[in-house]
């Protein structure tokens, strides 16, 4: 082991020791004590003053997104997480099944190791810490180096709050100078990894030898059928696609539009600030967005005007996002993949079965298990898409970015981490919340045996 790795091992061991000691101090907190801590932690982030400072710092440090997006995301996701946790049992007996005589008891996992992406440095640490504390865990957060100051500021506010409420400050620890070696070591030494980031990071989490929750790659695809409210759909797509300049992995990457309304829908997108590129502009945009097969960092989560400068395009000042007509899917057609930018791709379909096939083909290329959506009032179409696509979440008549991770207008659990199931190389296909940060003891009591007959079990087949 080289010196750098030895130093990382020693450094992380010290953090884990501190976090474990803090966690042990609250292991037998009451539900009321836990809930007070969770609410205090989040309130002292989202209240006036800190919330604005965090949002401003996140934009300046990451050089991605915009202030309004950061602020609104922090407000929605952090407050929503508290709403979802309020009144929910996470201490002691959390469920009793009288029929099966099973009692379920929640217990802490221990020390959570959380990896924080630079695309979401404001809401992710806030929500992850709140979820961890709800389960009476400690959490050590390793941010992307690009946004380490934002993470340090948030952690500092949380530690001040913990101290003021009589809890150990080391329940929340932030790594101030993260390195790859330190992040890898954190994943090895903690009790559970919650990894939000790119495919390489998630793979490292699952390879660490520690239980882990990872996220899958995004590439959200949305169908617009002939029954859609065209104006409403176009507006929601614009709001979602331009939110925080598309830092969200949930933003609409491809639109699958029924051929009879295709031109009308593109016009509706234009009225919302969409700029439909011509073939020459498409070629220039593609050359600017992908360098050696990888997304160019210069266009990720940037304004449409910045992208125009990088791509040498001339666009009107009021353009809010780009629309790229496309017919192909796969590596030779990169616009069919995830773009992490205010650029969406438009495909045309004839029969609805064609739309379903397009969704599956696109997500098979990138984004398996993540999400899709539909703007439709045809219940048969809605259910066909839901039944025949390999995604973990599907939104109906909603913008994907605000909907996937929970919002006030839907029932999705508020989160900043989206499990994508086995399709996306993940262990769960749910929105990752505090419920994934507890261990559960099942207590079984005996009752008189109830043994079914063979006829009850196999009566439908035994005489065939």
From TrEMBL:
Gene3D superfamilies the UniProt entry points to: Aldehyde Dehydrogenase, Chain A, domain 1, Aldehyde Dehydrogenase, Chain A, domain 2
Sorted UniProt keywords: Oxidoreductase
* GO MF annotation list: oxidoreductase activity, acting on the aldehyde or oxo group of donors, NAD or NADP as acceptor
Under the heading InterPro entries, the entry gives: Ald_DH/histidinol_DH (IPR016161), Ald_DH_C (IPR016163), Ald_DH_N (IPR016162), Aldehyde_DH_dom (IPR015590)
Database matches in CDD domains: ALDH_F20_ACDH
Q: Which Pfam families match?
A: Aldedh (PF00171)
Start and end residues of each Aldehyde dehydrogenase domain: 10-271
Q: Which PANTHER family match?
A: ALDEHYDE DEHYDROGENASE-RELATED
Please report the name of this protein according to its UniProt entry.
Answer: Sulfoacetaldehyde dehydrogenase
Tell me what organism the protein belongs to.
Anoxynatronum buryatiense
């Amino acid at each position: 082991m080289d010196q750098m790795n030895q130093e990382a091992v020693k450094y992380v061991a010290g953090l884990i020791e501190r976090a474990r000691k803090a966690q042990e101090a609250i292991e037998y907190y009451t539900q009321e004590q836990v809930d007070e801590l969770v609410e205090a932690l989040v309130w002292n982030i989202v209240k006036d003053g800190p919330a604005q400072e965090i949002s401003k710092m996140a934009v300046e440090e990451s050089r991605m997104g915009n202030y309004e997006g950061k602020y609104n995301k922090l407000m929605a996701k952090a407050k929503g997480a508290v709403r979802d946790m309020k009144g929910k049992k996470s201490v002691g007996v959390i469920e009793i099944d009288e029929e099966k005589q099973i009692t379920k008891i929640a217990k802490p996992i221990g020390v959570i190791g959380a990896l924080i992406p630079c695309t979401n440095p404001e809401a992710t640490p806030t929500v992850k810490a709140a979820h961890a504390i709800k389960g009476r865990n400690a959490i050590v957060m390793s941010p992307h180096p690009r946004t380490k100051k934002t993470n340090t500021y948030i952690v500092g506010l949380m530690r001040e709050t913990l101290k003021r409420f009589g809890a150990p400050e080391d329940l929340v620890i932030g790594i101030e100078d993260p390195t790859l070696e330190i992040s890898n070591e954190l994943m090895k030494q903690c009790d559970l990894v919650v990894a939000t980031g790119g495919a390489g990071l998630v793979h490292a989490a699952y390879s660490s030898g520690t239980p882990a929750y990872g996220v899958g790659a995004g590439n959200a695809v949305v169908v617009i059928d002939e029954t859609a409210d065209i104006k409403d759909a176009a507006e929601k797509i614009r709001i979602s696609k331009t939110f925080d300049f598309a830092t969200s992995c949930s933003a609409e990457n491809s639109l699958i539009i029924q051929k009879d309304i295709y031109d009308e829908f593109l016009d509706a997108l234009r009225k919302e600030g969409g700029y439909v590129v011509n073939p020459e502009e498409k070629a220039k945009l593609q050359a600017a967005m992908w360098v050696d097969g990888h997304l160019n960092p210069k266009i990720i989560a940037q304004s449409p005007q910045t992208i125009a400068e990088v791509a040498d395009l001339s666009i009107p000042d009021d353009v809010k996002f780009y629309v790229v007509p496309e017919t192909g899917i796969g590596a030779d057609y990169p616009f069919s993949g995830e773009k992490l930018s205010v650029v969406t791709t438009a495909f045309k379909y004839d029969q609805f079965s064609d739309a379903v096939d397009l969704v599956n083909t696109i997500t098979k290329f990138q984004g398996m298990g993540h999400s899709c959506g539909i703007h439709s009032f045809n219940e048969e179409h809605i259910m066909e898409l839901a039944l025949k696509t390999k995604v973990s979440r599907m939104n109906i008549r909603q913008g994907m970015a605000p909907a996937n991770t929970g919002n006030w207008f839907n029932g999705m659990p508020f989160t900043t981490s989206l499990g994508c199931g086995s399709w996306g190389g993940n262990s769960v296909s749910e929105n990752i919340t505090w419920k994934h940060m507890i261990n559960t003891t099942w207590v079984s009591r005996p009752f008189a045996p109830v043994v079914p007959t063979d006829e009850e079990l196999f009566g439908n087949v035994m005489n065939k």
